Amino acid sequence: MSADPAALDLADPLARFRAEFFLPPGKIYLDGNSLGLLSRRAEASLASVVEQWRTLGIDSWTEASPPWLTMSETAAEKLAPLLGAAPDEVCVTSQTTANLHQLLATLFNPSHPARRVILGDAVNFPSDTYALASHLRLRGLDPATHLRLVPSRDGRTLRLDDLLDTFTDDVQLAVLPAAVFTSGQLLDIATLTRKARERGILIGWDLSHSIGAVPHALDRDGADFAFWCNYKWLNAGPGAVGGLFLHRRHFDRPPGLAGWWGVRADRRFAMASHHEPAAGAVALHIGTPQILSLAPLLGSLELIAEAGGVEALRKKSVALTDFLIAQIDAELAPLGFELITPRAALVRGGHLALAHPEAWRICSALKAAGVVPDFRAPDLIRLAPSPLTTRFAECAEAIARLKQIARTRAYEKYPAHHGLVT
């Protein structure tokens, strides 16, 4: 493949989808792993729901298109191919951490005589760790004893052998990230899931930093559960509705946190005094679906399907990050930048992480120069090209501006890290 960015852009089969998005004027947007951009389809889908609310009122639950009563199931059907799951194993509801709490409440048994440890890791998004610790306390267990975090040897990535070594006989349940949010490392879901199940451990995956950028095969791999947000690579908007996956072998478990929308559809409005759970993952619904939050997701998923699905997005994503890695090696490595994301495509997600002692001030200078990156403490610059919006020429220009900032030390006029990240 030619390394000429103009030629790569001309040959890009996804190039036409760039026009579907609202791009920040005069900016190179490389922050899709934190907040995906608004698409015209998502905006139109939201506008349609608002119009239905205006004109139909409560009748929108049954007469809108799609009916609000089944909108979350419609979203589940569209998300299922990205997950390698059946639609009835997917529930589009609530938000990421709340969904993790629901899955823990449903699957974790604190009275098990020998297995009462929950396994996490030291580099995952901290909200997951907060949820694991608080859940253990709610179940009468001490996180100091019953929460075990797999350490990272470099503080940024996880080794397969280290993870497998922690799959001991006292572990009941493990929660791991598919893609590490700092380094962009992609874990071996298939191997880790297989090994966990061989050792009698329930295993679930946080897909927040991989869904929409990496194809998943949750059914084939045998994952017990998963959860994610939809506002990053899936462009569903800030604070968008989240999602969860529950393998069908767990369908017989009652929801740990029971709510009225998790009741079987034909009995939902019967208002029975006892909970009658729906069949499948939808039993894990708690409250009324977030209609205004679901609407943009439907528009975004429509675009992804039209583009050829997540496999097509992954092919472009790998090409973009391959291109960036070559540029980083040639232009930035001599200036003190270190690529900490694994280089092989099989073990990296959709974003790249560069380490530099002045990362915060460099990010500030880069934003002022018209490039939108992402900073993660203490020293990481994350660059996330989006397959549907980013051009190869933009990647080349972003690296050129970054090189100029570092070479001239233009970042020195910006203040040191103040502890807040936007």
Radius of gyration: 22 Å
Q: In the CATH hierarchy, what is the class of the largest domain?
A: Alpha Beta
Order of helices and strands: HEHHHEHEHHEHEHEHEEHHEEHEEEH
CATH architecture of the largest domain: 3-Layer(aba) Sandwich
Q: What is the CATH superfamily classification of the largest domain? A: Type I PLP-dependent aspartate aminotransferase-like (Major domain)
Strand order of the largest sheet: 2-8-7-6-5-3-4
Gross morphology is globular
Helicity, as a percent range: 25-40%
- Quick one: biggest sheet? 7 strands, mixed
**Head-to-tail CA distance between termini:** 36 Å
* Number of strand segments: 13
Quaternary structure state of the chains depicted: single chain
Instruction: Report the mean per-residue pLDDT as an integer.
Output: 96
Strand content: 5-15%
Give the tally of structural domains.
2
CATH topology of the largest domain: Aspartate Aminotransferase, domain 2
Helix count equals 14
* Stretches with pLDDT under 50, minimum 5 residues: none
Q: Given the helix and strand composition, which structural class is it? A: alpha/beta
Distinctive features:
422 residues; alpha/beta; Aspartate Aminotransferase, domain 1; Aspartate Aminotransferase, domain 2; seven-stranded mixed beta sheet; four-stranded antiparallel beta sheet; 14 helices; 13 strands
Protein architecture, described:
There is one protein chain. By secondary structure, the protein is of the alpha/beta class. The protein has two domains: 5-30 and 309-413, Aspartate Aminotransferase, domain 1, CATH 3.90.1150; 45-305, Aspartate Aminotransferase, domain 2, CATH 3.40.640.10. It is built from 14 helices and 13 strands. The protein has helices at 5-10, 40-56, 60-63, 71-83, 96-107, 126-138, 143-146, 160-165, 189-198, 218-221, 291-306, 309-332, 359-368, 392-408, and strands at 28-29, 90-92, 117-121, 147-150, 171-177, 202-206, 225-228, 243-246, 338-339, 352-355, 371-372, 374-376, 380-383. Strand 6, helix 10 and strand 7 (225-228) form a beta-alpha-beta unit. It is globular. The two termini are 36 Å apart.
